[in-house]
Amino acid sequence: MTKSAPEEVEFLANLAGLVTVLTIAAPAGEQDLAVRSGADWPKGKRMLVCDQTRCEDHRLARDGRSTRLSLATPLGAAFPAGAVVYVSNTVRYYLRPEAAGLSQVMRQVDGGAGALIGSVSRFRLTYLGAEGQPTADPRRVSRIAVELAVGRDPQPITSLVGLSARRTV
To answer: What is the DSSP secondary structure assignment for residue 24, as one 8-state letter?
Structure first.
């Protein structure tokens, strides 16, 4: 999670599930990675190369090929064969005002945004730790309580959303 505010949350996720591994060790300075499968990896996507102790953040220089991924910048450190490579999308949910005093809940992925819910009169996010208590520390958040009301005088509904796998980069 990179942002956690009452009307906005931003986090990193691998939405398309694109994951592969290095088939050959990659030395520091390398930009062309030998991977198990690089097909369907789109140019410009943010990606992470990770071993047991660290991750590096990169962008794809071109569309992935069957056994190759090309980085826009060279690796800063060496990575062994078997290191994991995956796409990392930036996902943001936020409230945007609209006409007549209502708002829209928006979803933004890697910069492109679209409306999810219109005519929103209430949208509030509460971040909860493992014990169910509110927390302001994004590292301790295990669930998010989403309070939502649509229309002029509605009863709000609240739903808990649990967070799954995390990796610190």
So the answer is: S
